[in-house]
């Protein structure tokens, strides 16, 4: 049964300005809407007097529906917030209330006419506790899915290294780590300079890990590896349907993914001139624009790295001066391994212990001769090459410690003209040729970022031949 009070007297009140008339709505349709069983609807006027209560309210309140019409809302529900809606003129959507010892979700909405409040509507959005429980179940499922995707995203864009992973107590190493820790306290751009293999990416991870942005993404961009035709879409993303072949849902760019986090621009010296211009604008405005989209503000911290001499490139006009000064607010110079020889054995032992655990081996010692050879080698590949040698030694070693013979010839055999600390070293022509060949392969792999196809082309040999030689010299 419907109790509408003076509904008929005001049936045209809300429609007059629009040119519509309530007579245009069939009465049975309008009443079915107001008295639907899914929402326990209550309408009050500006004085708080109940003008309508749907029949589904029966039994919820202590007063029968037919007796509630014409009474003040507080007489029916002492703790009601409906009068507050009249005062504040603000809606309350999705609020919780307790009715008959059960939690219900309600909506309270002010009703306006010519800018003034003429009443308010209140309705239960979920009358049945079972329906509310079902909603919570869906929310929990969505939350679990969101947590899963967040974890997956963190595995891709999370920082993996900390300062504990940076081994070395030489004066130069300690100086670099101290400056990096200071850099982590601010949001200023950081430029990490060092030869290939000196740990530039590791330092970038460590800085992010102790910065205020550590709970957000760490996004790495290799400036030299992105094909020219994909640079803009990879860095800045694109909107749905922006070009032929674009994803239907669009795609965020690397800068967008680094919002509130850190973006690491590796090999910044290899960035094409056109991209340097775009990067300068992004750094200056903190604003990106997807292909086919509108500009949007983002918040990120930039760390860049290079093994090139940017100052010389600026003089040669192959690198923008304004971009150089924008990036090098804090410069961290990483020393090559040959300049921190006191750190060679600690770093080697760290890799050896780490690899022993991964391979279920128990090798934690190194002979005096092997240690001397490691210290005397020039390490053109720096720390990355040192780890390669540690891994190779672990595989070759058949005892409980690393011996001289477990090290590659590139480490144990000195170039012609240099004295040897061990007369037993192989100085045969074959050994010297193999040593030079292995060193050339390592250098080519290092120069190409361990891309075997490119390394083979650089060495002017077939790819299959490179694979065979790598196997021969145990280059992983």
Can you walk through the features of this model?
- The protein contains 19 helices and 14 strands.
- Helix 17 (429-447) crosses helix 18.
- The protein has four domains: 7-126, PAS domain (Beta-Lactamase), CATH 3.30.450; 158-333, P-loop containing nucleotide triphosphate hydrolases (Rossmann fold, 3-Layer(aba) Sandwich); 337-425, Helicase, Ruva Protein, domain 3 (Orthogonal Bundle), CATH 1.10.8; 428-476, Homeodomain-like (Arc Repressor Mutant, subunit A), CATH 1.10.10.
- The chain has helices at residues 27-34, 65-68, 73-76, 82-88, 129-157, 171-184, 200-209, 231-236, 254-257, 273-285, 310-315, 321-327, 344-358, 368-376, 382-396, 409-412, 429-447, 452-459, 463-472, and strands spanning 42-45, 50-53, 92-99, 102-113, 116-126, 190-193, 218-222, 237-238, 251-252, 262-266, 287-289, 295-297, 301-306, 330-333.
- The protein has 476 residues and is of the alpha/beta class.
- The strands form four sheets. A five-stranded antiparallel β-sheet has the order 2-1-5-4-3. A five-stranded parallel β-sheet has the order 7-10-13-6-14.
Provide a brief overview of the structure.
With 476 residues, the protein is an alpha/beta fold.
Features:
476 residues; alpha/beta; Beta-Lactamase; Rossmann fold; Helicase, Ruva Protein, domain 3; 4 domains; five-stranded antiparallel β-sheet; 19 helices; 14 strands; 40% helix; elongated; disordered N terminus
Write the layout of secondary structure elements.
Elements: H1 27-34, E1 42-45, E2 50-53, H2 65-68, H3 73-76, H4 82-88, E3 92-99, E4 102-113, E5 116-126, H5 129-157, H6 171-184, E6 190-193, H7 200-209, E7 218-222, H8 231-236, E8 237-238, E9 251-252, H9 254-257, E10 262-266, H10 273-285, E11 287-289, E12 295-297, E13 301-306, H11 310-315, H12 321-327, E14 330-333, H13 344-358, H14 368-376, H15 382-396, H16 409-412, H17 429-447, H18 452-459, H19 463-472
Parallel strand pairs: 6-13, 6-14, 7-10, 10-13
Antiparallel strand pairs: 1-2, 1-5, 3-4, 4-5, 8-9, 11-12
